[in-house]
Amino acid sequence: MTEETRSTCPYCGVGCGVIIETEANQIVGVKGDPDHPANWGKLCSKGATLHLTASENVTRQTRLLQPLRRFERSEVPKPVTWERALDTAADQFSQIIREHGPDAVGFYISGQLLTEDYYVFNKLAKGLIGTNNIDTNSRLCMSSAVAGYKATLGADAPPACYDDIDQAHCLFIVGSNAAFAHPILFRRIEDARKNNPAMKVIVADPRRTDTASIADLYLPLLPGSDVMLFHGLLHIMMWEGWINAAYIDAHTDGFDALKAMVRECTPEKVSEVCGLSKDDLFTAAKWFAKSEATLSLYCQGLNQSSSGTAKNATLVNLHLATGQIGKPGAGPFSLTGQPNAMGGREVGGLSNLLSAHRDLANTQHRAEVAKLWGVGDVPAKPGKSAVEMFQAAADGEIKALWIACTNPAQSMPDQATVRRALQRAEFVVVQEAFATAETCQYADLLLPATTWGEKEGTVTNSERRISRVRAAVPAAGEARQDWKIVVDFAHKLEAMGVGSEFRKTTSAATNNNADRNSALTPIALSPETAPSTTTLFPYPSPESIWTEHRESTRGRDLDITGLSYAKLEAQGPQQWPYPEGATEGKTRLYEDGIFPTPNGRARFAALPFIPLADPRENRYPFSLTTGRLRDQWHGMTRTGTLGRLFGHVAEPTVQLHPADMAERGWQDGDLVHLTSKRGSILVPTESSDSVAKNQAFMAMHWGAEYLSGCSSTGEPLAGVNALTTSAFCPTSKQPELKHAAIKVLKAELP
Ligand code: SF4
Asked: Which residue spans adopt a coiled-coil conformation according to this UniProt entry (predicted)?
């Protein structure tokens, strides 16, 4: 007898609904959920093989199935009980906190965790321990989009939705290879074009990607020149009288400063800096400004940059200047890479954020969250962002790291520094579902976590839509839910008195909650989950965590006080905001022209063009960019177990322009050393005219199993992040994973 469970795909930010088929507690199939508005039953190659990867991971024993402990990193870790494992973690963390203070520990978590997991991790660090050293791999994914929205529209709230793709007359796709990274959304783009043959599609990307292949106008801009492109388009729009002066007057501030800045961005100058023809610039400006509705779709090409905030904000400028926002088919729409990068933002899961889009730097916001949590204070000292956290650990400042559901030894830029940090840290906990993650080799303690098919909670996709994630089978081995691991660890710390200076008594916290909102669901603790002492973590279920998160959103831009697990069950996935009294979520934001700023007006961002952090030079004459393949996900811990997902691309290569290959007399498959200032890897070449001359492309998925290398001082490294730079945007702190200067030299074979 086959049973069906509705859940959500754990891969990309499209957030497709899936139906998991099980027999006798085994996952035997998966199909698209015909009722989910993100995909209406469709699945891409990754989503459609979820059941196969789940069973392969069990067959090939790549799952982590019990807690493991080792005393020397060279040892094979040995099984321990959960009780022993959590006692060890609490002993080590509390000792380091007592000796060196709370900022001597750091938590590095993941956009693949569920909202409930994220919420308790954030509360553990900021509420109980008293450190803001908690960041996430979402920093590598969308923190520039967050900063760009806040700088211009006043809040981190994507104003558009997937339906806008169907209603757009012009699509401006920039820095996004949706064909590979968001395949179901790309199919929607293709369908929209078929249904509206007059639709214009502009794709701006240094690489002629599969997405660019459908463009009516392809803009192969030079790497890093996006801000100059957007300023140049605005210059042309102003010159030609294509801006919307009425919208600017009624709904925005700051246009004069921007106007002064873009005056010098003439078509001649922009053409030279971006490497684009003036005719193409005029065509793009005209289509963007004059179309009935223009929707921008953008992703890591803008975000993963040392000018990430400026790139995002200056693209939003174009929408504000032309009034292409707050109406069907129009708006700046950032696509999230990971399945719950959006949910993590909602609960404040970055070192500079607090619950419900509050800012750590805001005194009032800290006081509100402290009251919600029933703690005396949330520390004001800024926490370390991802790159800063590993640098601090490499410098010996952070002594204990807790890493959950992410693989920084492979995925972080400047891998040599990250590995040095993991080696130097006195105690490293890795909370993970997959034993094959590179980072596991650095763990003193490995804690087995549940994964897709076993987890309960919620995620939010790119269009602000909250979907349920449901367990279809029991946890594998002794794996536990991520939120439960955090709560159990928190109880151990509380029992040891960690953070007691911040805590009030449970009765005080309960009274706080009662005062604040009588609608808060009372939390009943079951005997086995109830701690013996008072606790800030009285959660018997993910729903009880979500209910507290929900309350934190009251009156905020993402207010979901009208939603509940029961409503999600009855109505299906819903978009935020969904305040108390609402009967449905809000499809599109800012239709009334009022923005969440102090005076209700959006702000133009007059931010200058700043060149790349690691530009090409004589010794490193190639621009390396990184990206995704269609059928693989992140470090391949899940997709790398399934042969059929290698049918599209079987092995790592570096793509080089045919002319660069011919000049050097290289053939496809010749082995070359790619070397940056930070490290080197050995990889076969592949001739491809999708990259321009002097440019190189590599997929980011391949790890040690496929691609070995070394640092500039000879330590072993793996994958393309041996080469990338940790230079980051000063505002969003998102690193420049999209560009590194490299040299390419043919390997001398013995
Ligand atoms: Fe999963 Fe993204 Fe594919 Fe949808 S498009 S099935 S969310 S990987």
From this structure: none
Phi, psi of 578 (to 5 degrees): -145, 75
CATH of region 622-746: 2.40.40.20
Query: Residue 9: CB within 6 Å of ligand 1?
Result: yes
| Mutate-to-test residue for ligand 1 from 8, 46, 190, highest number of ligand atoms within 8 A of CB | 46
Ligand 1 closest atom vs CA 8: 7
Domain span(s) for CATH 3.40.50.740 in the chain = 68-140+340-575
Q: 406-421 pLDDT, tens per residue?
A: 999 999 999 999 999 9
Assess whether the C-beta atom of 11 lies below 6 angstroms from ligand 1.
Answer: yes
Rounded Cα distance, 115 and 120, in Å: 9
Whether ligand 1 lies within 6 angstroms of the CB of 10 is answered as no
Does 43 contact ligand 1 (Cβ within 6 A)?
A: yes
Q: Is the CATH code 3.90.1150.10 the one for domain 68-140+340-575?
A: no
Tens digit of each residue's pLDDT (9 = 90 or more) over 594-640 = 999 999 999 999 999 999 999 999 999 999 999 999 999 999 988 99
Q: Which phi and psi (to 5°) does residue 428 adopt? A: -125, 125
Angstrom CA distances, 418 to 351, 401, 408, 480, stand at: 18, 12, 7, 27
- What is the rounded average pLDDT of the residues 294-310? 98
- 422-477: pLDDT as tens digits: 999 999 999 999 988 899 999 999 999 999 999 999 999 999 999 999 999 999 99
- Is the model's pLDDT at 529 over the cut of 50? no
**737-749 tens-digit pLDDT:** 999 999 999 998 7
Tell me, using a 6 A CB cutoff, whether residue 465 lines ligand 1: no
| Cα-based torsion angle of the residue sequence 281, 287, 288, 290 in order, rounded to the nearest 10 degrees | 130
Both tokens of 704, joined, read 């040690």
Cβ atoms within 10 Å, residue 359: 14
Answer yes or no: is the C-beta of 47 below 6 A from any ligand 1 atom: yes
Atom number of ligand 1 nearest to Cα 11 = 8
Where in the chain are all domains bearing CATH 2.40.40.20?
Answer: 622-746
- Nearest to residue 354, comparing CAs of 199, 515, 520, 123? 123
Q: How far is CA 505 from the centre of its chain?
A: 36
CATH of 143-335, one of 3.40.50.970, 3.40.228.10, 3.40.50.720, 3.30.1300.10: 3.40.228.10
Q: Kindly give the number of the ligand 1 atom that is closest to the alpha carbon of 15.
A: 7
Residue 406 CB partners (closer than 8 Å, separation 6+): 108, 109, 110, 112, 136, 137, 439
Tokens 């891409």 label which residue? Answer: 44
User: 15 in ligand 1 pocket by Cβ < 6 Å?
Assistant: yes
Residue 451, pLDDT score: 95
Q: Are strands 294-298 and 400-404 parallel, antiparallel or unpaired?
A: unpaired
Q: Which two tokens stand for residue 53?
A: 């990867």
DSSP classification of residue 77: P
Whether the CB of 77 sits within 6 Å of ligand 1: no
Give the CB-side neighbour count of residue 555, counting CA atoms within 13 A.
5
Confidence of residue 133 (pLDDT cuts 50, 70, 90): very high
Q: Which CATH class is domain 3-59?
A: alpha beta
Question: Residue 332: is the preceding peptide bond cis (ω within 30°)?
Answer: no
Task: Enter the ipTM.
Answer: 1.00
Radius of gyration from C-alpha coordinates of the chain: 25
Distance from the alpha carbon of residue 188 to the mean position of ligand 1, in angstroms? 13
Q: How far apart (Å, rounded) are the C-alpha atoms in residues 23 and 7?
A: 16
Domain with CATH 3.40.228.10 in the chain: 143-335
Half-sphere exposure of 414 (CA within 13 A, CB side): 19
User: Mean pLDDT across the stretch 303-325?
Assistant: 98
Helices (H), 62-122: 82-100, 115-122
Crossing angle of helices 226-240/255-262, nearest 10°?
100
